[in-house]
What does this fold into?
Amino acid sequence: MVDAIYIHIPFCLKKCAYCDFLSFKMSDKERERYVDALIREIELYPKFEYTTIYFGGGTPSLLSVREVERILSVLNIGERCEITLEVNPKTVDLDRLKLLKKAGINRLSLGIQTFNSKHLKRLGRLHSVEEAVEAYKLAREAGFENISIDLMFSLPEQSLLELKDDLFLLFSLKPEHFSIYSLIWEEGTEFFEKLKKGIYTETDNDLEADMYEYIIDESKKQGYNHYEISNFSYPNKESLHNSKYWENKQYIGVGLGASGYFENKRYKNDLNFNKYYDRICQGEKPISEIEIIDEETKLIYEYILGLRLINKGIKPKGKYLEICKILEKENYLIKISGRYRLTKKGIVLANDVFERFL
It folds into this structure.
């Protein structure tokens, strides 16, 4: 059964220095054309009843409220559907937030990244610390009761004290959910070029581990459940949509460069606007890459993704059970009620654990 859809909006006010996501500046005309194509692409798929809808990007909050309404109008939205929109604090005000809520958006993901002015500037974010906090407060005033905040850590020259300050402000706001990711040095980004030139250096591994462990420990003290490697929530406020990815469930992905998992195939859409538009005009799905998921591949995805869910873990069989037994002896995994979960050591070194399954 497919009951989730990801909608990619590839437009931004400005490319951030660390970002390698598919995103571009846009004009109103380009945005309108894109929304038209997006709707036509959605209609190429069966009319599933969706229980989660996720507008990601890019910066989906650059869409007009009318465009959000148009997209939602062609979807079969189930009762109590979680509908998330990623928001850049620079793109919203109170009236706009109220209209988005009225349109059906019931969960916001605020891309703040850091509450430190120096690091915001380095990241290339256009909003200030004050604007980020104000956007959050306006979202509350507009009536949003399910808000997630995105943060980053292990930034260039970031200290443990600066991270602690970020978390102090985060916890004072009390969002229902937050995601926090360590910086990845992606090729082709401004950050990566500065790394190659020696302007920036990577965070020391021990410091990064200390930062991550501090995040885990402090979030628990604040009542958050560490339910996925990079995600924390109050009880029953997990991201329903993203949880479907980690549970290896199938979902539709639409939009330029979007990924999906449908009919036992993982696919990726065209990255080129012209190719994307041409395929849709011809009544074709704009898919450029396909991976056929056989039973063995499905198991690998299931185990790697499943281990990301801290409190659920996996119940392996065959050779994968033997791998888990070895990882248990090495203190990367622990067996609880017949299921293997990551230990604290396994969480910190999760990528090393996942490689064992490949």
The radius of gyration is 21 Å. The first helix runs from residue 28 to 42. The chain has a mean pLDDT of 94.
